[in-house]
Amino acid sequence: MSDQQPDTHAAAGGQATVARIYDYLLGGKQNFPADREAARQLIQVVPEAADIAWSNRLFLRRAVRVLAETGITQFLDLGSGIPTQGNVHEIAQAIDPTSRVLYVDIDPVAVVASNEILTGNPGCRAIEGDFNRPDLILDALDDGDPATVIDLNKPTALIYCAVLQQVPDDRITDVVAPIRDRLAPGSAIVISHLSAAVTDTYGEDGVSTAKNVFRARAATEITLRTDEQIAALLGHYRTLAPGLVPLNNWRPELSEPDPYATAPGGSPMRGVVATN
Question: Can you give the residue range of the structural domain that contains 95?
Fold first, then answer.
């Protein structure tokens, strides 16, 4: 993992962000000293933090592949983070070159880095936005420039990968439902989420310490959810086989081996793909 500081938006280096911590865990270069320090503290509590990040990335790739193969050609990735190899657009456009992808992230580093990668790819772009404000995202998609990329009147895959645990219980429905319920027939939703069962592995004290890292270093609260709570986020959508499962159990044959493929308890994250 590189300690090279990116040139992009260097003023953002004062406080860690979840997107850049994730980038560091994946071996990326779009991170700052604050992000690396936060990641190191996290690894002290959760030594396999990088495995968790890779497991999530592999699940995302498999989910996008499956949806692209069903004919979905629009992908709305909310809280998309820093781009790494095997991004949504790379997977989707390998199956259908006409696929269109809109990445949305609150971190300007993620947005700039994404748009640098997307240069010359007119069907894809990244915009700065907060997935906690679906009303503003919908306004942009209805009337703004992003409407030239994504048309919500056509089937669209809505992606929330490893981001909804940043939303407290009293706001989660208001965050997810507006865009989910707006999607056209034939659309899909992809969710990966830290499971409340993680306490069985790391204990209450370990989980509390890990949460404190995100709270202190990235000003982010982490909320764990049970399978029932995660399933409730799907609304009226119907799950694709194998349902809501540990990430390593979601169609593992479609990607390189998951880091948790042989782990007795499987991934501490759950994943699900559902269609309307």
Answer: 48-198+225-275
